[in-house]
Amino acid sequence: MPIADKYAPSEIESKWYDYWIEHRLFHSEPDRREPYTIVIPPPNVTGMLHMGHMLNNTLQDVLVRRARMAGKNACWVPGTDHASIATEAKVVAKLKAEGIEKSSLTREEFLSHAWAWKEQYGGMILKQLRKLGASCDWERTCFTMDDARTEGVLKVFCDLYRKGKIYRGVRMVNWDPAAQTALSDEEVVFKESHGKLYYLRYKVEGSDRVLIVATTRPETILGDTALCVNPNDPRYRDLPADARVIVPLVGRSIPVIRDEYVDIEFGTGALKVTPAHDVNDYMLGEKYGLETIDIFNDDGTINDKVGLYVGRERFEVRRLIEKDLDEAGLLERTEDYTNNVGYSERTGVAIEPKLSMQWFLSMAELAEPATKAVMEDVIRFVPEKYKNTYRHWMENIKDWCISRQLWWGQRIPAYYLPQGGYVVAETPEEALELAREKSGDASLQLADLRQDEDVLDTWFSSWLWPISVFDGIRNPDNAEVNYYYPTNDLVTGPDIIFFWVARMIMAGYEYRGKAPFNHVYFTGIVRDKLGRKMSKQLGNSPDPLDLIAKYGADGMRVAMLLSSSAGNDVMFDEALCEQGRNFGNKIWNAYRLLNGWAVNETLARSENNRLAAEWFEQTFRRTLREVEEDFASYRISEAFMAIYRLFWDDFSGWYLEMVKPAYQSPADAETLAVTKGFFDNLLRLLHPFMPFVTEEIWQDLAPRAAGESIMYAPKPAVQEPDEALLARFELVKELISGVRNVRKQKNLPQKEELVLEVIADENWPAEFAPVIAKMANLKEIRPVTEKNPAAAALLVKTTQYFVPLEGKIDAAAERQKLEADLTYLEGFLASVMKKLSNERFVSSAPEKVVANERAKQADAEAKIAAIREQLAALK
Q: Alpha carbon of 643 to those of 133, 602, 619, 638, 848: distances in Å?
């Protein structure tokens, strides 16, 4: 069936996606071809398609489709992340809306609700990606908490524990009171926050003296167990060595300790020490053996350990305690204060430093090969600027808190014995065996063991992703992981360089002895045209599916490509989607134009058409070389723009105009065949970027077998272009444009054939005379030896051209125009000469600037002379 008259993306996109799926054209199995592998950054199972996904997945799809056309066995593995914190919050909210509290359920009951939620909503984002045209191997779809991935995670945990890299202990952690779980350092986002600095009065025990202490968190006085001053601070040298102070409101007597950690310049130089709720205070507490008082419940309310403000929320207590301190005469003053406060990346609430028993992974040894791989370009970052960010983090890496106080996730495989101690095992059966061995009690039963309540951090699943999607953890020598690993490219955002990228590299070296990928392409953040990050909260983020419905997936993909380059933020404007759709329309209409040509099989190809084809062939070769260079450097948007210009300007704007038959005249068969060949090659270049419109037209361009697709059509081979021919043709284009400008300036009808005179020299492209004659609508090109002052003059490089105007223009009007031009040019020349006559300017200005002014002088003088000649001829 021939293609429709009108380009309608919605009518072709679902048709071709279904066709690709029906014929399993995205599926990959190991074979003799070179593999090309990408693993998708697994979106949260709670997620919906947003603009960041659009950018990321468009780029991945371009790379994958291009690899297929290069003859590689391309495998793009999709999947989703179980997102412990986000998913548990969704399920808890859903249950609450149904009148069910999580606390009323057993773990098993809650998980049954969670799995039901996941089955109903969890695959939505992957379905949405199909609308974009994502050519993932959907048969390989993975989930970070499916059986295979879970077994792999537990295997790795046990392995790292046996190697002494995983340990358990009480440490200061980042606590999220909303999610009620510990977070890793990377899950804390620091933001500038406006608050107060509170100056509190601590009475020195046994005297009337008061020490003033500044704090931003007055509620934590409930957990104070010491006051610290710098031993070098002259303000406190007279304090007795055994001095103690009374905690305001609380009435607790605490020691005054001395440590150079205290900054003499900050506040009053006296520091309250709350070891349970500040990481630096915790270290002081360890150093001086201080008592630790944890004042918070897991939800951020005050517990009953002190007896004040019990059950009150922490920020409510801050307001109350300020009032109570003031009324008790224990608040010296307050000041407005701005500082950086840590917030949970997951829930957005302020985190609380909290002492907690957690599981940790020792990172220093794992980081060494992973750091070296990036710094030595075994793994290449695009753009390179992120190497330093990566190096700094890796060289200052902290142990990873891998446990989370949740139910949704992989449960930590540690089992506690009745008499104390624990064992770590992949299965309960293995745990029982180890427990019997450890305790010496052969009568122990599984029911006697208690499994750890915590789950593993979600990232502990996804750091294995490039290996685990090919079952390389459970079966490390299987054919698939040996074939597809390492993967080729990773496309991701720089915001997860530590969460995910660095950790995957560590896991790759630990479990495969090599990097998990060769290149990491970092995308930018998608922003609106005002520069604001797109977000639902700001209401400035369009729904990608609405944009696809309006402009088509190809149009949407073009918009992402037009506005992005590696590592740079994407300034998105909906007008770019319209530009993308318009480009699809341009391709469509160019093909319809070609299809509409009548053909005369007996007609010989004209010299004009032969020359046009010769030029476009070389132009195509040059662009193809440029595209290859761009892809080699991961300049994906630049590669697309080169193809865009090739199609819009060179093919449609020049070539088709050159070979288009005259009105109601037929084309010759050879020109039509050559032009269709060019169209085929252009479609192949465009396909990775615009898969739908290229498939539709390619299928119509020639008879195709069932299951055949442009996505497996070989991309055109790179050949060196004839640069000399292309340089000559640039003279042709400049000349044609010049003649067209003469028509416009002199109001000469486009249909009127003109004469062109030329004083021939080495820059006269005589070999392209047939093309010049057709494109400029000339009835004659004739050589002359002298200037024609009565003609419109053109200068292309060194060649002089003249368009005779006798009888074609109003002499009086022309004289008036020339005189106005002369007046302007004489004024311009005077301004240039003023600069050049200034010795100071000539001697002090850069040589390039002076040379530019002299070039302006020469150009103006030449134009003035030409105008004067024309005026003389008009007299």
A: 20, 34, 11, 9, 34
Residues 308, 194, single domain; the answer is yes
Of 319, 349, 379, the last residue of a domain is: 349
Tell me the residue range of the domain where 266 lies. Answer: 189-349
Contact 788, 802 (CB under 8 A): yes
CA–CA separation, 693 and 614 (whole Å): 27
DSSP state for residue 302 in the 8-state scheme: B
Q: Which two tokens stand for residue 463?
A: 């750091």
pLDDT for the residue numbered 751: 87
pLDDT, tens only, 712-756: 999 999 999 999 999 999 999 999 999 999 999 888 888 899 999
Query: pTM for the whole thing?
Result: 0.85
Q: Is residue 541 predicted with pLDDT exceeding 90?
A: no
- Same domain, yes or no: 782 and 636: no
Roughly what angle, to the nearest 10 degrees, separates helices 503-511 and 364-375?
Answer: 100
**Closest alpha carbon to 469 in 457, 485, 458:** 485
Pairing of strands 517-522, 526-527: unpaired
- Rounded mean pLDDT, 693-722: 96
CA 237 and chain centroid, separation: 56
Distances (CA, A) of 496 to 182, 345, 566, 674: 19, 11, 15, 49
Amino acid in position 646: L
Q: Is 60 exceeded by the pLDDT of residue 1?
A: no
Report the distance separating Cα 172 and Cα 358, nearest Å: 9
415 in Cβ contact with 425 (< 8 Å)? yes
Same domain, 806 and 710: no
C-alpha dihedral sign at 792, 794, 800, 803? negative
Tokens of 611: 């020359």
**840 in the same domain as 776:** yes
C-alpha–C-alpha distance, residues 27 and 23, integer Å: 9
352 backbone dihedrals φ, ψ, rounded to 5°: -115, 125
193-217 pLDDT tens trace: 999 999 999 999 999 999 999 999 9
Give the neighbor-by-neighbor strand order of the sheet with 166-176: 181-183, 166-176, 352-361, 400-401
Contact 77, 39 (CB under 8 A): yes
Q: Of the candidates 630, 624, 633, which has an alpha carbon nearest to the alpha carbon of residue 686? A: 624
Cα of 23 vs its chain's centroid, Å = 31
Rounded CA-CA distance 122/419 in Å is 42
